[in-house]
Structure formats: structure tokens, C-alpha cells
Amino acid sequence: MSKFWIDYPIIDKEIEKVKKQIAQNAKCKDKIIENSILELLESGGKMLRPAFTIIASKFGEYNEERAHAFASVIEMFHMATLVHDDIIDEAEFRRGKETIQSRYGKNYAVYIGDYLFCLCFRILATTSSIERGIDVDTKVMSRICMGEIEQLNSRYDKDVSVKDYLKRISGKTAELFSLSLYIGAAESLCDKKTCRLFWNIGHNIGMAFQILDDILDYTATDEEIGKKSGKDLEDGIYTLPLILAMKNNHKEIKEALDKDRYNEEEIKGIIKLVRDNGGIEESIKMAEKYSKKAFRDINKLPDNEYKQILIEVTEKLISRKY
Fold first, then answer.
1. Which of 45, 94, 212, 244 is 20 to 30 Å from the Cα of 227, by its Cα?
2. Ranked by mean pLDDT, which of 20-29, 262-271, 290-299 comes out on top?
3. CA-to-CA distance for 262 and 111, rounded, in angstroms?
4. Are the CB atoms for 38 and 26 separated by under 8 Å?
5. DSSP per-residue string spanning 92-130
6. Which of 231, 207, 241 is nearest to 317 (CA)?
7. Predicted confidence (pLDDT) per residue in 155-196, tens digit
8. Residues near 281 by Cβ (< 8 Å), separated by ≥ 6?
9. Which of 290, 310, 315 is nearest to 299 (CA)?
């Protein structure tokens, strides 16, 4: 279990309530589905997105029942995308533990992901206002799905650009961070300016977060990231470090990539090329650009204890080792 929020007991306590609500909603006749959702819920995730929903809710007219409902929707949607991601990637491990598709097979994993989506819409239908809730949520969810599709369509594309990459992670990752903060603010009746500020904060945190995560695929050990390092590269998912390195040395890197499969030594060689051609350093600079934008907007929020928590948590998220 993650201890990420242990220094913020007021948030940690509410996250536990959200997890209990998810566990309650997960109950069904098929115990494989129910137990798989519970295992995923307790697999060590930081619960960032539901926590962001709760934090943003504290800037308006806080309603615990509604805040927890939306936080649970956000987390279950995130869980569903992880399950489906692992199917597409044929991933055996996530967060150091066996994936659902590896344990029970792809068919069951598809149904578990779909069941999570159904739970999301069931809660939204009974909790959300039409104007501020379902309409926004479904649009964001469709953009997240499109981000995943764009990633699938761009596999092994040696001509993928920085612009293509940024568009992909904006949909795949940043949209859900944006929604997490925006929906918390909107449903607690914050004014439009504050809601838009939270949306932008979520976008910039999400962009920085994903870029740093992609850097770790080139710099961290298997134990540090809970999965095989270089896995994106092996799967033909070309992320920012590689794309930037190719701009600096396109011919040599493109030749190294000119295979359908890479063995371990070849992956190490490509990672070295990325490092030697500035891919890591330039990616860090781009992540820092988004981080600065996030802090700029956080500082525009009204002063309260939750603003300080958001500042400190964002600092923790963007201070990962690489």
C-alpha cells in the first residue's frame, strides 16, 4: 500500500473512504471480477487523481458525499484504463505485481475493465449534474481513449514528432489530471475562473508527470519502476527522450531501431544512444517547463491549507529520480 499521503492525514483519511466506496461498488456475483478490482485498488497506487478531486473540492462548498463519489469515479476510470493498457501491451507486471490479464487471461481482463467503466457511469448518473458532470466527464473520457488509440497507431513510427508525442500524452495522461481537479472545483460550485485554473494546473502536472515517467523508462531499474525498464521502447512506443535524441542523431538511431524486435543488448545500446544524444537532458527541460506553469497557476489559487498541500504534493511528483 502506498504511503504517499501519510504526511497529509486529512487527505489520507478521505482517500480511505473513497477506497471503501470503490470496494462497495465493486461487489458483484463474479468473485474474480470483484477480487481483481480489490487487488488493483490495493496494489500500491498513489491515488493521485481522487486526492486531487478532494483537494479541489475544498476550495468551494465542500460536500463530502459528492466529492467522494466523483473521486471514486475518477479512480475507477483510471483503473479501467490501466487494465486495458496491460491487455494491449501484453504486460505481465504492474507496480511489481502480476497484471490481471496475465493472471486471468485477456478475456477476463476486458470484462473487468468494461465493468469498471459501467460502475463509473452508474455513479455519474445518480450523482452528477447534467451541466457540470456527465457532459464534461464523457468528453474527457473520449479524449483519453483517443490518446490511447493514437499511441497504438504510432507504434514503431520512427517519424513521430515532438508535437505528436505531446498531443498523445495530453489525451492519454494529462486529461484525467485536468478532470480530477476541475470536477472537484466545479461540483463544489467554484467560480468559472477557479475551475479553469484547476483545469490548467491538472494539464501541466499531467504533462510533466508523464514526461518524467517516460524518462524513467530509460534511466531507472526494473525494481524502481515496478516493471521492465525499456519496455516502451521494446513495444515500439517512442517517447520524448528517444524522439528528441533522434532529432540530434536521426541516422544512427533510426538504424538501431530498424528491427521488429530487440534483444536485451540492443535495447541497452539504444538507451545509450538516447543518453549520448541529449534525449534525457532535453526531456527534463521540457518537464520543468510544464512544472513551472503548474506552480505559476497554483500560486494564483485562493490561500488555504489545501493550496499548500497541492504545492508540496506537486513538488514530490516532479522530484523523482532520473
1. 244
2. 290-299
3. 32
4. yes
5. SEETTEE-HHHHH-HHHHHHHHHHHHHHHHHHHHHH--I
6. 207
7. 888 888 999 999 999 988 999 999 999 999 999 999 999 999
8. none
9. 310
C-alpha cell at position 44: 500500491
Give the helix/strand (H/E) hosting 154: none
- Phi and psi at 94, nearest 5°, equal -140, 130
Task: Compute the residue count for the chain.
Answer: 322
Structure confidence by residue, pLDDT tens digits, 267-294 = 889 999 999 999 999 999 999 999 999 9
- For residue 27, give the H/E element and its range: none
* HSE-up (13 A, CA, CB side) for residue 111: 11
Please tell me the distance from the alpha carbon of residue 67 to that of residue 58, in angstroms, as a whole number: 9
Lookup: cell for 40: 488493483
Q: How far apart are CA 107 and CA 83, in angstroms?
A: 11
Domains in the chain: ranges and CATH: 9-317 (1.10.600.10)
CA distance 158 to 243: 8
| Helix, coil or strand: residue 155 | coil
Alpha-carbon distance values, 2 to 5, 7, 15, 44, 98 (Å): 8, 12, 11, 5, 17
Which run of H or E residues covers position 175? Answer: helix 175-187
**Which amino acid is located at 101 in the chain?**
Q
Distance (Å, whole) CA 232 – CA 162: 16
149 vs 146: CA distance, rounded Å: 5
